[in-house]
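Purpose: get a first structural picture of the assembly so the mutagenesis plan has something to point at.
Setup: two entries, given in the order below. No constraints added.
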Amino acid sequence: MSGRVAGATAARVLRQLRHDPRTVALVLGVPVVLVTLIKYVFSGSPVFDRIGGPLLGVFPLISMFVVTSITMLRERTTGTLERLMTLPLAKLDLLAGYAGAFAMLAAAQAAVVSAVAFWLLDLHVAGASWAVLLLAVANALLGSSLGLFVSAFARTEFQAVQFLPAFVFPQLLLCGLLTPRERMARWLEILSWGLPLTYAYDALDRTTRAVYGGRLAADVAVVLGLAALALLAGAATLRRRTP
Amino acid sequence: MTRSPAITVRDLRVRRGGNLVLDRLSLEVAGGSVTGLLGPSGSGKSTLLRAIVGVQIVDAGEIVVLGRPAGSPELRSRVGYVTQAPSVYGDLTVRENLRYFGAILGVEAARIEEAIDEVDLRSQAGQRVDRLSGGQRARVSLATALLNRPELLVLDEPTVGLDPVLRRDLWALFHTLAEGGATLLVSSHVMDEAERCDWLLLLRGGDLLASLTPSELRERTGERDLEAAFLSLAESA
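Result (structure tokens, whole complex):
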């Protein structure tokens, strides 16, 4: 693996994004619209202040999951992946390049939606907003890595899009965002311990409530560890030789 | 063949989607030559080329490329491969594509501009690839393989859909590269391209019909026209 090739790959992916301003506008704009909706749909209740903060860090995970899985699928279907596999490029260079580029996009996304939420929508959280931003980037890495991995199991873009409701929505329901996990049925709570988003959400929830400590550190370690694991699993799905 | 072979294929067997595409195929490609791999579509040309560049899972047989087993990591910077469908990024400009492939291959910026000229895309260099014509896209794909001046170039139908002037120019480029010591293996299903090759490998239904020069093909069949010569050979086989 060489940092130079990974850097060139990240630069290439960012250039592709620059040629697609509509996608960039959607990635940056949609979370702002959704957060604004939540603020006014739940006006007069404490819901916005409870889930608004954690949501800032959940958006990047979801967006980057979709964006990465589709981009990687396109790389597979247009033949560029096969071409790259004949070149002196390590699989991890390619994946690290992707993860790097989308982490940067996610940082921009989280910064925009956080700025709107804190300054325009008057979101109150007890914890530090910069910590929420860092967690957002960590979650984006997790989303990207998971997206890279699952893209190997989709043949078409239609299938790849369906992975969002299939993989991510159940995790959203179970992660504690809508109902605290300890109030769920026991088997659902146990199930939630096996899902990546649970740790991502828990870290965000603790940070926004300023409950710092060992559990938070463990959550962050799990998120980053799973991101690295998914990246390695993704590398295993990239084959130099195909049937 | 005078020089040592750049490619040696022995008893190659490849199955794709349950079909036996190549069965006990053996052939050699001379170093420093422009060798044409000709045959109708479906004859196994692309599969053979994929096996030679090491992206095809093969069932049996041996392929030695530049003294190494096909697909060896060290061959990745010595062999250039152009797929039949252009494999470049449609949402990048010509130059951005070449910069990326150039960065992977570790070539200088000046080499990128040279490659743009070699495939005659100077005036399209700043345009997005998905706004180009099919022939122009094919040339971007070709340029990415020329960047590091590989010792072996494997080109899958590189001149399909190109106008006659451009085709002539590209074949002239292929010969210039061969004179510089490179080996080129070029597939085509158009027999009139056979004329431009030093050596011909004729493939039909996964079998090697003949391995000879264009003039030997004429002599053997008594046909002046290479298309007719191929047909005569295919029918007598």
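Residues 3-237 of chain A form one domain.
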